[in-house]
Design goal:
With 250 residues, the chain is α+β, with helices and mostly antiparallel strands. 44% of the residues lie in helices and 21% in strands.
Length: 250
């Protein structure tokens, strides 16, 4: 069950862009440093075929679930492949509570294994993007969103997301109020990073997202593992999965 409406998803994407420190120049530099035939060059070839890197068999084995019962969702809505994702999920009896729009809601908590879009980054940018955000950074991100909604931003990525909300006939006031509500949710995620050693050249676990971010020779690979209410269990499984995926190019 997807409890986030399209306007909420759009605003969440915008918040993520605002708090990311990856500039287009640095991203281009990182792409140029990914050599064909290298492990990183191998990884990026899976950017448009995530389902061949994270296969049903790998996901089912990690989750301890039947492969045949997995619900598969290859999200390729965005043109930019770095926003794609490959998700496998299984129904469970587990539930979780989420805070949204000033309300506490109880929603189904499926068992989820997901590989997010691969992208080229620099090590410096990776470390800046996946460390706990400061209150000042979050405030600056919120200000930039408000400026973008008012048509005063030259950030192309943010403007593209806002255009999609406009096309969905989401009025400006709704965009602002939604972004304001989501900023508190995003703040929790942005403050939930801890460094992980022993995998890739750098790695960070986000306990709010149940998501592991890995940097390996110019490539960012990230996986979500939500199999339990125990974050440490999810973290252990995510590291296991991350190592398995990296091994595909060695």
């Amino acid at each position: 069950m997807n409890w986030l409406s399209p306007p909420l998803i759009g605003c969440l994407c915008i918040l993520a862009i605002c708090c990311s420190s990856e500039g287009s120049g640095r991203a281009e530099h990182a792409r140029n440093n990914v050599k064909s035939g290298s492990p990183a060059g191998c990884l990026i070839t899976y950017q448009n075929r995530l389902n061949q890197l994270l296969t049903p068999a790998i996901a089912a084995d990690l989750a301890g679930k039947p492969k045949e019962q997995a619900r598969q969702k290859y999200n390729q809505v965005m043109k930019n492949a770095s926003y794609h994702s490959m998700q496998y999920s299984w129904k469970t009896d587990r539930q979780k509570q989420v805070q949204l729009m000033g309300r506490t809601m109880t929603v189904p908590a499926d068992a989820v294994i997901e590989l997010h879009g691969l992208r080229t980054v620099t090590l410096e940018s990776f470390k800046k993007s996946h460390r706990p955000a400061t209150d000042e950074q979050l405030a600056a991100a919120k200000k930039e969103i408000d400026q973008a909604i008012d048509g005063q931003s030259d950030n192309q990525q943010i403007n593209e997301h806002l255009q999609k909300l406009d096309q969905m006939h989401v009025d400006k006031q709704t965009q602002k109020s939604t972004a304001s509500e989501l900023s508190s949710v995003f703040a929790q995620a942005a403050k939930s990073y801890t460094d992980v050693t022993g995998i890739g050249q750098a790695a960070s676990w986000n306990s709010f997202e149940n998501r592991l971010y890995i940097f390996e020779k110019g490539i960012e690979l990230s996986v979500t593992v939500d199999l339990s209410s125990d974050s440490q269990f999810n973290r252990k499984k995510a590291i296991e999965l991350g190592k398995s995926l990296l091994a595909a190019c060695r």
